[in-house]
Design brief:
By secondary structure, the chain is mainly alpha-helical. The protein has helices at 2-11, 36-44, 53-70, 75-84, and strands at 15-18, 24-27. The chain has a single domain, classed as Orthogonal Bundle (Arc Repressor Mutant, subunit A), CATH 1.10.10.10. InterPro entries: Tscrpt_reg_Rrf2, WH-like_DNA-bd_sf, WH_DNA-bd_sf.
């Protein structure tokens, strides 16, 4: 599951990965430029996709609103809060 999530984050341009014994992953852009909505979008994919046109449009709007709200918080901000806790 972790590998799949890292692959999705890589495809979204949020992390870079290096293979091998000294490999790993690191952020491609500064944490303050990554919103929680960006991470959600990358990891969640199209799980809210709905076939019905009327309901699908509503779900697309709801998801867009949710992502916009999540993007008001950066990854750096979350890390800062966790360090204080």
């Amino acid at each position: 599951m972790v590998r799949r999530t890292f692959l999705l984050l890589h495809k979204a341009g949020l992390i870079v990965q290096r293979k091998g014994p000294n490999g790993g992953a690191k952020l491609k852009v500064p944490a303050k430029q990554i919103g929680l909505g960006d991470i959600f979008d990358a990891a969640a994919g199209e799980w809210l996709a709905v076939e019905d046109k009327a309901l699908g449009g509503l779900m697309k709007k709801v998801r867009g609103d949710a992502v916009a709200a999540m993007n008001e918080h950066s990854l750096a901000g979350v890390v800062k809060r966790l360090k204080k806790a």
